[in-house]
Write a structure and sequence with these properties.
Length: 437
């Protein structure tokens, strides 16, 4: 079991941590976040007053229903479940946090994919009272599989409602052993386990005397210590072009710039770059931002690049270094999570939305699907239903500039859109690329 001491991170290095909470219905995700916010003094007095008078309170008297801090929809408060992803922001002296409270119900698993796509850590809640003989619930398995597929860096397992099992160390060990076996099947070895009671506040922000047998950190100190390896500026430049800007085009000295956000890497004035998929090279003549020009720009910044010569660049093209590992491809292998209520069939038409480019796409084969209960890959078949996780082969009508998801998430991820309904049908991660010549 790892403790905060295993992660010597200074206050200056800690920075921002994005994490999600996930698990089954009634595992206590919203209550846990409410407890984190309440005990870390991140709630205003008027919010507390409103919570004590809430219409759909599920606690007696003047006690605060902490779950309602994140359950913002009326339907969520009526039913006592999380439906949409709720984002909350708070800070401690050591770190800033963005929390995504994701739904537990199987019907809304697709919303968990949204929250996990940008998360550095996943806090998987397990209700200690609902695990019998080491059998984890299906949603625990599904959310763990999705977190692994999406490459979430840190897995934290919060074994909740320990007060209802008498704070028994044996129950905690039973759940930990079952989860270690589950994570091992998914290739995840480093997992952090914390026994908590979100309702009572045990081991959420401070250590609990009721569980003296647990010698690790409480949940918040653990989250404060987790290292974040988000060094996007150290990688090759990826600059998907969002918009071509023209000004005074009727004049001889007309302006042409290419606007977008730098996803990874950095660019300097004078750099030799390549425009893909056309494979045309040019030098960066200027880097423009809202208040002037810069000599250098890096990942996360929105800029306009001006090149030293006129080249054919349009929305959906990607600017990379002249020597780059980015690949141009029309055939991909990807893991997808089917999000649409309408099942996939080969007869439906789909668009693949990748960075700023949208191209017609065809799923040519369902190579395998993940059995969420055994975590084994099974025969693919011809149909995918909501929440299915599958590995598929894709053929695109036009090439895209892409990387493997594990190398560059921004250019290794995509969504599929049903052209008939405009619904987001699937979220995907590129696992193999058949590059074009």
């Amino acid at each position: 079991m790892q403790t905060a001491a295993d992660f010597p991170v200074s206050d200056q290095q800690a920075g921002l941590l994005r994490f999600i909470t996930a698990g089954s219905v009634d595992d206590g995700k919203s209550t846990l976040i409410g407890r984190l916010l309440y005990d870390s003094k991140a709630i205003f007095a008027d919010q507390l007053d409103a919570l004590t008078r809430a219409k759909h309170k599920r606690v007696a008297g003047a006690a605060i229903d902490l779950a309602q801090l994140t359950d913002g929809l009326e339907a969520e408060r009526e039913q006592g479940i999380t439906i949409d992803v709720a984002y909350r922001y708070f800070a401690t002296p050591k770190r800033k946090f963005i929390i995504a409270d994701t739904p537990g119900h199987e019907q809304y698993t697709r919303n968990m994919v949204t929250g996990a796509s940008t998360a550095d850590a996943a806090v998987i809640l397990i209700d200690a009272t609902r695990v019998q003989d080491g059998r984890l619930l299906p949603q625990t398995r599904r959310h763990t599989a999705l977190a692994a597929l999406l490459g979430v860096e840190h897995l934290v397992v919060a074994v909740n409602k320990m007060d209802l099992v008498g704070y028994a160390q044996e129950k905690f060990e039973e759940i930990r052993n079952a989860y270690v076996a589950l994570a091992g099947q998914l290739g995840r070895q480093e997992i952090h386990f914390v026994p908590v009671s979100a309702l009572a506040g045990d081991n959420v922000v401070t250590a609990s005397s009721a569980m003296a047998w647990y010698t690790g950190p409480a949940l918040l100190p653990l989250l404060e210590s987790l290292p974040v390896r988000r060094n996007l500026g150290d990688r090759d430049l990826r600059f998907p072009v969002q918009l071509v800007l023209r000004a005074d085009g009727h004049k001889a000295e007309d302006f042409r710039g290419y606007a977008g956000r730098i996803e990874t890497g950095s660019v300097r004035k004078g750099d030799l770059v390549c425009v893909l998929p056309a494979r045309v090279e040019a030098r960066v003549a200027a880097i423009r931002v809202l208040d002037g020009e810069r000599d250098v720009a890096s990942a996360g910044q929105s800029v306009t690049l001006v090149l030293d010569r006129d080249v054919d660049v349009s929305r959906g093209d990607t600017i990379v270094p002249a020597q780059s590992s980015a690949q141009v491809a029309r055939r991909l292998t990807a893991d997808i999570c089917w999000l649409d209520t309408a099942p996939f069939t080969a007869q439906r038409k789909y668009l693949l939305k990748h960075t700023t480019r949208s191209v017609p796409a065809k799923v040519t084969a369902i190579e395998s699907r993940l059995n969420i209960h055994t975590l084994e890959r099974e025969a693919g078949g011809n149909e995918l239903n909501m929440n299915d996780i599958a590995r598929v082969a894709l053929t695109l009508a036009q090439p895209i500039v892409c990387d493997l998801f594990e190398d560059v998430a921004a250019t290794g991820a995509f969504i599929l859109i049903d052209t008939a309904t405009n619904q987001t049908a699937a979220a995907g991660m590129i696992r193999a690329i058949e590059a074009t010549q």
